[in-house]
Design brief:
InterPro entries: DHFR-like_dom_sf (IPR024072), RibDG_C (IPR002734), Riboflavin_Biosynth_HTPR (IPR050765). This is Dihydrofolate reductase family protein. It contains 7 helices and 11 strands. The chain has about 220 residues and is an alpha/beta fold. The longest helix has 12 residues.
Length: about 220
């Protein structure tokens, strides 16, 4: 069975994975775009999201590429799919990425409100899971067929899986920025008690990369 892992999860120096007041105009919260400047500069990100060429090819780029290795399915929190809250008002919103999202596999979106499966161009299919994080993980593992399941965020989704000690590998990219407020990733979580330890620290060009593992999990 593959790992459940988080990759390329950007975090501020003061521990926030998103800024405050997330909205359509500020999908990452106010100030949240600064968390991801390290990724935007890489060649891998520009290929995935812009279809273009160019970008940096150093350490940061290597972590972006590594994040897609052996991924057979994804899990996303609802905030990662869109800015809407509560019952779906309609089915018009189809994600932040346009008609061809970068996942190119089956994606399981955590929500309290059911919605029909949504097939997109490029091989991405969104399934909306309203019966909890364990159900989403079970379905994603089945879809992954022995490969890894990547948990894309957001902060609340990662916290839920951390709290249950279900994440096998957590890669954090610490961005050189302070947010002051927003969504704190580790607030109230005792990571050593949950079985996590830091196994790798690698300085990149624009971020510092940390790899947290549960004991017994290979890096």
């Amino acid at each position: 069975m593959g790992k459940l892992r988080v990759a390329c999860f950007s975090l501020s120096i003061d521990g926030f994975g998103a800024g405050p007041a997330q909205s359509l105009d500020h999908p990452l919260g106010i100030g949240g775009m600064a968390l991801h400047q390290w990724a935007f500069a890489t060649a891998a990100f520009q290929r995935l999201h812009g279809g273009g060429i160019g970008g940096e090819t150093g350490v940061d780029n290597g972590f972006i590429e590594r994040g897609f290795d052996n991924v057979g399915a994804w899990i996303l929190g609802r905030n990662m799919f869109g800015p809407l809250r509560g019952p779906w008002p309609d089915l018009e919103w189809k994600g932040w990425w346009g008609e061809e999202p970068p996942y190119r596999t089956q994606v399981f979106v955590l929500t309290h409100h059911p919605r029909p499966t949504l097939a997109m161009k490029g091989g991405t299919t969104f399934h909306f899971v309203s019966d909890g994080v364990l159900s989403a993980l079970e379905r994603a593992r089945e879809a992954a067929g022995g490969r890894d399941v990547r948990l894309g965020g957001g902060v609340d989704a990662v916290r839920q899986y951390l709290r249950a000690s279900l994440i096998d590998e957590l890669h954090l990219a610490i961005a050189p920025t302070l947010l002051g407020s927003g969504e704190a990733l580790f607030a109230g979580l005792d990571l050593p008690a949950l079985g996590y330890q830091c196994e790798e620290l690698v300085p990149g060009e624009r971020a510092c990369h940390l790899l947290l593992l549960r004991p017994g999990m290979p890096a």
